[in-house]
Automatic annotation (TrEMBL):
The keyword Lipoprotein applies. This is Carbohydrate ABC transporter substrate-binding protein. Residues 1-24 form the signal peptide. It comes from the Bacteria. InterPro entries: Bact_solute-bd_prot1, SBP. It comes from Radiobacillus deserti. Residues 431-450 are annotated as: Disordered. The keyword Disulfide bond does not apply. Keywords: Cell membrane, Lipoprotein, Membrane, Palmitate, Signal.
Length: 450
């Protein structure tokens, strides 16, 4: 095996290991595809220009299929033949990496999961800047969601959703405890409300996960304006802000006694779905895309779940964070670059495309100006389940979402937290937050220096 091929093999192996840590924290866009699937639109149109699209999320094909049909109706002089291919998560990202490295066989358009995106920005990105389409709409979008797919002033990825993190309250439990959920403004209020829930019901207020920090730790540090890495890529997970946040999570379980560890380790497990459906906890902290988890796995709670902003750390503080996500890009191997870029912008950035992110996928579109449109206010299964205030809440918190600083070493700290930090601090109570986070930081820094 030559040196070049050996290097590629090692990269593939490392990416496979990294994906184990990232699948829990970066998802939300849809269920992962488990087998190759191909959908073709426009193959019956003469002289249609072929554009290929890769994704790891079969649901995203629905969005692009809908878009291609609309495009061909509106642009009969420039029809496209869309060949959309859905692959398993690792296979798609690994194939893309090799294609970009070798300079051949990459698709025109491709989804890249948030946790993987930084790896495709290393060196000179083999992706096409989308500035001409992004910059005109930034003033009416949640701009932080575009920054995570940018480098050196160029916007490469088009986000699929904001991933606004909210609180889901079981109103049946909260009413029984005599708690007005709209009175919960801060985390101190949340703890006080939790004590009433524990005292007057058979439920706990909340659950703290140990295998998926996307559903508590990450959004809570983002609220404070920090991340695992700073904007310059420096690891800061052992900072006092991190230590205090992890201490809070420990305290709500063992000191305040309003929470318990999440059954199954995470709130996206069958064990947890059954537990929460039985009313054993009063709230869930999760992105807005978690609505689909309720519909699919907790249907009996229909009409009992209310969506509200996250509690702030202090009055006037941020009440949300943007979690998970997929950036869609145009590769520099496209033979029809201008058309591919225009079609991608049409699909996800245009007013109609933004509305389709909600009506087709059930996601909160990055363009907040569409959150007030009639299209996203029409009755659907989400309003039927949660009530009609979903976008009222989103509009309230749209300016309170900080950008994330995702780097090529994000998978390392995710792995450390999910396998060592949460286990030793929250489950075993064998280490203090400071001890565990400093140990994790040392481990990751040693990897970064290699």
């Amino acid at each position: 095996m030559g040196v070049s091929m050996l290097k590629k093999f090692l990269i593939l192996f490392l990416f496979s290991l990294m994906s184990i840590a990232l699948m829990a924290c970066g998802g939300g866009d849809s269920e992962e595809t488990t087998a190759d699937e191909t959908t073709v639109v426009g193959d019956d149109i003469e002289n249609a220009t072929e554009l290929t699209f890769w994704t790891f999320a079969g649901q995203h094909v629905d969005l692009f299929e809908d878009s291609a049909k609309r495009w061909n109706e509106e642009n009969p002089d420039r029809p496209i033949k869309l060949v959309a291919e859905a692959y398993p998560f690792d296979q798609m990202h690994n194939n893309l990496l090799l294609s970009l490295q070798s300079g051949e066989s990459a698709p025109d358009i491709v989804d890249i999961e948030l946790g993987r995106f930084a790896n495709y920005l290393q060196g000179e990105p083999q992706l096409e800047p989308m500035n001409e389409y992004v910059e005109p709409i930034l003033d009416k979008a949640v701009s932080s969601r575009f920054e995570i797919y940018a480098k050196d002033g160029n916007y490469y990825g088009i986000p699929t959703h904001v991933g606004s993190t909210v609180m889901y309250y079981n109103t049946e439990v909260m009413d029984k405890a005599g708690v007005d959920i709209d009175s919960i403004k801060t985390w101190d209020d949340f703890v006080a409300a939790g004590k009433k829930v524990v005292e007057k019901t058979d439920s706990v207020m909340w659950n703290v996960g140990t295998t998926d920090w996307l559903m508590d730790y990450w959004p809570m540090i983002s609220q404070k304006g920090t991340d695992m890495f700073d904007e310059n890529g420096k690891l800061i997970v052992d900072s006092q802000t991190h230590i205090d946040t992890l201490q809070f999570l420990s305290d709500v379980i063992y000191k305040d006694k309003i929470a318990e560890l999440t059954p199954g380790g995470m709130n996206q497990s069958e064990e947890f779905y059954g537990y929460f459906s039985e009313g054993k906890a009063a709230s869930i902290l999760a992105p807005i895309w978690y609505m689909g988890r309720f519909l699919d796995n907790m249907p009996d709670l229909k009409g009992k779940i209310a969506i509200r902003p996250m509690p702030a750390w202090e009055e006037g503080g941020n009440r949300s964070a943007g979690m998970g996500g997929t950036g869609t890009v145009v590769t520099n191997q496209s033979e029809n670059t201008d058309l591919a870029k225009e079609f991608l912008a049409y699909t996800k950035l245009s007013e109609e495309g933004s509305k389709k992110l909600w009506t087709v996928l059930g996601f909160d579109p990055p363009r907040w100006d569409t959150w007030e449109s009639e299209a996203v206010r029409e009755d659907n299964k989400y309003y039927d389940y949660f009530g009609d205030n979903i976008f009222d809440v989103l509009l309230e918190i749209k300016d309170e979402i900080n950008p994330l600083n995702v780097t090529q070493h994000t998978p390392d700290i995710v792995t450390e937290y999910n396998t060592n930090v949460a286990e030793s601090v929250l489950r075993q109570q064998s280490m203090t937050p400071e001890e565990a986070l400093k140990q994790a930081a040392e481990t990751v820094r040693s990897e970064m220096e290699k």
